[in-house]
Design brief:
Layout (H helix, E strand, L loop, with lengths): L9 H24 L6 H29 L13 H4 L10 H8 L4 H22 L5 H39 L6 H15 L5 E8 L2 E8 L11 E2 L3 H9 L3 E3 L9 H4 L20 E9 L2 E10 L7 H39 L4 E6 L4 E5 L1 H8 L18 H16 L3 E9 L5 E12 L5 E10 L1 H20 L5 H16 L2 E6 L7 E6 L2 H11 L10 H9 L3 E3 L4 H7 L3 H10 L3 E9 L2 E10 L8 H28 L1
Antiparallel strand pairs: 1-2, 1-6, 2-3, 4-5, 5-6, 7-8, 7-11, 9-10, 10-11, 12-13, 12-16, 14-15, 15-16
Helix pairs in contact: 1-2, 1-5, 2-4, 2-6, 4-6, 5-6, 6-7, 6-10, 7-10, 13-14, 13-19, 14-19, 15-18
Length: 640
């Protein structure tokens, strides 16, 4: 038996024979429905329809052949293959090039309207020719037309979602310290990449009473800074006045499109308004508003479409919203930076140290130069340094950090709490600390401010004055000359230095040594030091020089070689070494040209300075007066 020819699809035959007539009827109907210039999307669809009809005819013949020969030789089932019809066209019937064109100024509603008209043209032509397709063929026909609508809608939605995602990413970048011009440029790039019909786009920000381009694509960048657009003129003036999106369907002949859509050039630009381009069609402007306040204007234009699609306009609005938010954030950052700059400049001029700690960690957000000088010495500490780099790990410095902790976490205010701290160069200083919490509008503690005054010299001067007052008072007490001498030495060793020794030269009598110490370790060494001849009798050059000059001499750093020169023997040297003296002052005592002795003051845990020699010299003067008074009193007693 000869094989039968495969069954023909009446609808396929119909499409191949009448596709040209169908397209002509469709074009006539479209011109009646939407007179005027056709969009690029319509033109793309018209060019692609013959190919769609050819592919549809092939699929129809394949479907009819499959339905005529059911598997297993069974009789054809009128309902067989219903489930498989919808998967006959898994790939897009329109190429991606055409889908991209469909997005360019082509509403999805227009796509549906175009194919609704096309569907009617096909059905009417079927009726006129008397063609009677099967239900399978009609199902495939309708699903193909539906798919042609679904494909651009799906692709457009996916591209729009990616565009909105890109806008979100740019907004996230704005949370960092990124320059506003760079962010606006990224937004403009998203617009041009996502809305393919856009030929140029600009974002203008408000600067006083004018708008300036801060980002753009398709516009001469060299003119950005030169052009200033007044708020009341041109296309942007209308957008500003109406505070809503403004669209021009055909902008070329419209006077609002002058100066590339920007309005008249500002007086400071020195530029004349440009003639509108004859090719300029769609123009769309969106005000950039932040809580009702104008921040700027976004303007986009196209030379290819007469009007932007609803989806593109939605994208422009979203981009303008993002741009307004980013510009507002940038302005706030600039204001905060300016205020912070003024605040920093103010605290830098303060004579006291200031430090601001933020957050639960207490990390330093700001400190002035004076604070750095106090806690670091001559070196300047950079701002934003953690507090541990400003204060040492000693117990006293831990107390200073504890003050900040109490203010940050307990809300306590501390005023003028004096405590010692060790400066970065190792010197022990006395500071007056004040701390107060900083609260926000809701009463939450957000920071703490500490002020620090270095009162070391002030307290030192007060102690020296009090010391000399007490020494002067001793001289006014009833005559007990030996007791007065011992009291002066005690003041020097316990109130001024850590150890004070007085070598007495009684003029013919046996020289003797009087000493007093503040530290227990130094007091324990006194018996060993008193066993040796006085330092006055030593031949050390420094002692001889001090005695000869009759001036107080500062030994800022006591070294072991120097101790070896003044020591009166190994045991004496061992005791001096155990003392661990850091500095010393030698004061020769004289009266009426006669040498009376040598007063030496020693410190263990601090360095003596040149200004300390004045206090030491005064103590020496009081000691000289006491010694001389004792000598005169003795001579008077012997003469009686």
């Amino acid at each position: 038996m000869a094989p039968r020819d495969p069954p023909r699809s009446p609808l396929a035959v119909f499409l191949r024979a009448h596709s040209a007539e169908i397209l002509e009827a469709w074009e006539r109907a479209e011109r009646r429905r939407a007179p005027g210039e056709q969009s690029p999307g319509y033109i793309a669809l018209r060019a692609e329809l013959p190919s769609i009809f050819a592919r549809l005819a092939e699929r129809l013949e394949a479907a009819v052949a499959a339905a005529a020969a059911p598997p297993g030789g069974d009789e054809p089932d009128a309902w067989g293959g219903v489930e498989s019809v919808s998967v006959e066209f898994p790939e897009p019937l329109l190429g991606f090039r055409v889908l991209d064109k469909l997005r360019d100024g082509f509403e999805l509603e227009d796509v549906a309207a175009h194919y609704s008209v096309l569907r009617r043209c096909v059905l009417r032509m079927l009726e006129r020719t008397g063609t009677q397709p099967s239900w399978v063929e009609m199902t495939i026909l309708h699903e193909v037309l539906d798919q042609v609508i679904i494909d651009p809608a799906t692709r457009s939605a996916a591209l729009r979602e990616r565009a909105l995602g890109a806008l979100d990413r740019v907004s996230a970048e704005g949370m960092g310290n990124v320059h506003i011009d760079r962010l606006l440029r990224r937004l403009v790039e998203v617009l041009v990449e996502s809305a393919r019909s856009v030929d140029w786009a600009v974002m203008l920000l408000l600067e006083g009473e004018v708008l300036r381009i801060r980002a753009g694509i398709g516009v001469d960048e060299a003119l950005w800074g030169l052009r200033a657009y007044r708020l009341a003129e041109g296309f942007v003036g209308r957008v500003v006045r109406e505070r809503r999106p403004v669209a021009l369907r055909s902008a070329a002949p419209d006077p609002l499109a002058t100066d590339a859509g920007g309005g008249a050039a500002g007086p400071e630009s020195g530029a004349q308004s440009e003639r509108p381009s004859d090719a300029l069609h769609a123009l769309y402007g969106v005000p950039m508003l932040s809580e009702g306040r104008l921040v700027g204007v976004t303007v986009v234009s196209s030379r290819r479409v007469a009007e932007f699609s609803e989806g593109d306009r939605l994208l422009f609005k979203k981009a303008a919203e993002r741009a307004a938010a980013l510009a507002t954030q940038a302005q706030l950052r600039e204001q905060l930076a300016a205020e912070r700059g003024r605040f920093e400049a103010a605290i830098q001029r303060l004579p006291v140290g200031v430090v601001v700690a933020e957050g639960a960690s207490g990390a330093i957000a700001l400190n002035n130069r004076r604070f750095a000088e106090i806690v670091r010495g001559p070196e300047e500490t950079p701002s934003h340094a953690p507090l541990r780099t400003l204060l040492s790990e000693t117990d006293d410095d831990q107390r200073a950090r504890w003050l900040l902790h109490r203010a940050l976490h307990g809300g306590e205010t501390v005023s003028r709490d004096e405590m010692e701290f060790i400066r970065a160069d190792g010197e022990r200083r006395l500071g007056s600390f004040s701390v107060a919490p900083v609260r926000d509008a809701d009463g939450r503690i957000t920071a703490a401010v500490m002020t620090l005054e270095d009162v070391t010299e002030l307290r030192k001067a007060e102690r020296a004055r009090q010391l000399l007052l007490e020494a002067s008072a001793l001289m006014a007490e009833p005559l007990d000359h030996d007791g007065t001498i011992e009291q002066v030495v005690r003041l020097g060793g316990e109130r001024f230095a850590d150890l004070c020794a007085l070598d007495l030269d009684d003029g013919g009598g046996a020289p003797r040594l009087v000493a007093s110490a503040r530290l227990p370790e130094a007091r324990a060494l006194l018996p060993r030091l008193l066993k040796h001849p006085p330092l006055l009798l030593g031949d050390a050059a420094s002692l001889a020089e001090a005695t000869a000059r009759r001036e107080a001499t500062l030994i800022p750093l006591v070294t072991d070689p120097w101790l070896q020169r003044i020591a009166r023997g190994p045991e004496h040297l061992s005791a001096l070494r155990e003392l661990g003296a850091r500095s010393a002052i030698l004061v020769p005592l004289v009266a009426r040209g006669r040498r009376l002795g040598l007063l030496s003051l020693w410190t263990v845990d601090r360095e003596l300075r040149q200004d300390d020699t004045g206090v030491a010299a005064e103590l020496g003067r009081f000691a000289s007066l006491a010694i001389e008074s004792a000598r005169l009193h003795g001579e008077a007693a012997r003469s009686r």
